[in-house]
Amino acid sequence: MNSRLINWFKLSSPATFYPFAGRMVPWFSWIAIILLVIALYLSFFVAPTDYKQGEGYRIIFIHVPVAWMSMFIYVIMAGWAAVGLVYNTRLSAMMSEALAPTGAMFAFLSLWTGALWGKPMWGTWWVWDARLTSSLILLFLYIGFIALKSAIEDPRRADRAGAILLLVGVINIPIIYFSVRWWNTLHQGATIKMSGQTSMDETMLIAMLIMTFAVWAYTIAVVLLRVRTIILERERDTTWVRTLLQEGNRR
User: Fold this and answer.
1) Burial of residue 26, with CB atoms counted within 10 A of its CB: 0-12 exposed, 13-18 middle, 19 or more buried
2) Is residue 54 situated within a structural domain?
3) Is the per-residue pLDDT at 127 higher than 50?
4) What's the pTM?
5) DSSP labels for 89-117?
6) Which of residues 180 and 177 earns the better pLDDT score?
7) Which of 4, 142, 156, 216 stands 20 to 30 A from 108 (CA)?
């Protein structure tokens, strides 16, 4: 048990994590592709037509997973920020930085697909209700984090400032989730509840969960690929990176 813990702690070193991430990227890339193909097939060719919303409801198979992932990524970023502040680990800040663009992309897709869904169902592209407004704030938090990190030249100061922003902004996540309970909004309540209850058809539920796992696998693959680039940039003056680059140039 102790040896396993030691092995996991070794991964907190950029030099150890870099090759590990490289080995994982192909696996999660293929998992994402396979799950995405299955999910799209089930979503658009197998899942039944909704008796209220017709065929237009199928946007939820993209909207809901990306909305979930946009919130989940921010929580993970905040977790990495807390670890970085407490233990002063370099990799923690790099992981947060690598996650941010993907989180921002999913936050944007959540708003965009939500608008496409809302127009035929509500008769409008946008309303300033609690769920949509707090989701827009989430996008601004992602953009603000990226901008803040870019604006500060000293990496350590940028890491600390970004970590504080993440920890302060994480309060927005429960606001997004519980907004439909706390306020009267146009947005429908949760179809899948934390208790495990759902009002969805079984095929719809399976398609949505597979799409969620596909988005999850994609996120892991892209973030691991991006963090490898960040590691090389941030550690370029270290001996192991110089050796790695020299070996790569010889090849």
Assistant:
1) exposed
2) no
3) yes
4) 0.88
5) -HHHHHHHHHHHHHHHHHHHHHHHHHHHH
6) 177
7) 156
Closest Cα to residue 18, out of 211, 240, 222, 218? Answer: 240
Lookup result for tokens 């704030």: 137
Domain count, the chain: 1
**In a 10 Å sphere around its CB, with 0-12 CB exposed, 13-18 middle and 19+ buried, how is residue 29 labelled?**
middle
Chain segment 196-232, per-residue pLDDT in tens: 556 677 888 899 999 999 999 999 999 999 999 999 9
* Residues spanned by the domain of 229: 23-43+59-235
pLDDT at 139: 97
Rounded Cα distance, 209 and 47, in Å: 13
Residue 18 placed within a domain: no
Integer CA distances (angstroms), 217 to 31, 93, 158, 223, in order: 6, 21, 28, 10
Q: How crowded is residue 100: how many other Cβ atoms within 10 Å of its Cβ? A: 24
Q: Count H helices, E strands: the chain? A: 9, 0
Residue 221 counted as domain residue: yes
